[in-house]
Amino acid sequence: MLAAVEQHSQPAWSPTSWQGLPNAQEIAYPDGAALARAVGELRSLPPLVTSWEIERLRGFLAQAEQGKRFVLQGGDCAESLGECNSATIANKLKILLQMSMVLVHGLKMPILRVGRFAGQYAKPRSSATETRGGVSLPSYFGDLINRPAFDAVSRTPDPALLVQAYQHSALTLNFVRALVEGGFADLHHPEYWDLSFMRHAGLAPALRSEYERMKDSLADGLRFMEALGEKTVDDLTRVEFFTSHEGLNLWYESAQTRPVPRRDGVYNLSAHLPWLGERTRGLGGAHVEYFRGIHNPVGVKLGPSATADEVLALARMLNPGNEAGKLVFVARMGAARVANALPALLQATRAGGVRCLWVCDPMHGNTRTTSSGVKTRSFDDILHELTTSHAVHRQEGVVLGGVHFELTGEDVTECTGGSMGTSEQDLATNYASACDPRLNYQQSLEMAFLIARTFGKR
What tens digit of pLDDT does each residue of 327-338 get? Predict the structure, then answer.
């Protein structure tokens, strides 16, 4: 068992011990003094989340490891400072809520909702520079770091954006909490069940009928609980949301990392669940060094190149105590590779007694570029990776405890397929993402029904 494996003493850790180590996504700030001022300001600002919220999430993740709860994680590829408005935030919250209700009905278990919001302002890039028309500039790394316009001023990393991203994260989180506390996530709201796309002529009749049955069943269940009168439905149907983002910019993450009163350990208080990306999970790198010291549950993206030895080493580094609810492995293999790449990793963690939660990210391994140069993803590829992952987990006897999507509550046209029949020719209709393509509202909800149907078969 991993807990019994030799416990090598590791070098002393601090929130800044990552500095000087190899950084796979290092940001070259030209103004060191401005960076120091921004980091200093971030250190003085209040935390965005609390340690007790983080510990509550860890408890829920531990339940998901045992197959007693299912994680739905989703949101924007990269948030935009300019889209920090009530309508956009409410729509993201609404689609996650609606998807989770479909999953509750189909999987017959509690759903843990984790948003890619209130901090997902950075995006890793395969190249540090971008070239257009013979001109090379820094790549756009998200609004936490620089700006999307292709000019020297916009693409120069700006430390002031660190503070602006914090402020916009605080505004987003405040509004999310206000919505939840104010009843937005109350199952009594009929508009949550007004899914007009279900009446679209292109929707399969079986799926439409399935939705209608689900809606009626949930409504009957609510009425029954109300009739019992022993406990209010408000108590039984309370919904919680947690935040997550990729911990890409370590200046930002470490500035919000601190001890808290009456608890052991040090917490990253910018998000409940930060994660390591496929490009930043290298052993011996700055990001793994930073992540090994925080008390939050941490995620790790694993692509098809990940080996069993790497996964076991990451588990020893990031969860040396082999604690439940601490480590989330997020597999993003691609539809064509998942059947061959995933089994060895599951076998290794099972044989090693590694306590971790396995989640499927069917988005990032399925990005492709059309003949006209537009990045997109296929609904069918996304679904294929999900169903194959589900089958592999069952075969290996390892719980698949969640899914991770890039999605939006808006009517964008960025991914092809789905029952609405979005084609490559339709992508130009409303392609809004500055980075990667997202499932739109209709595709996201349809995907939830298909997951519920497939994963709900025991």
Answer: 999 999 999 999
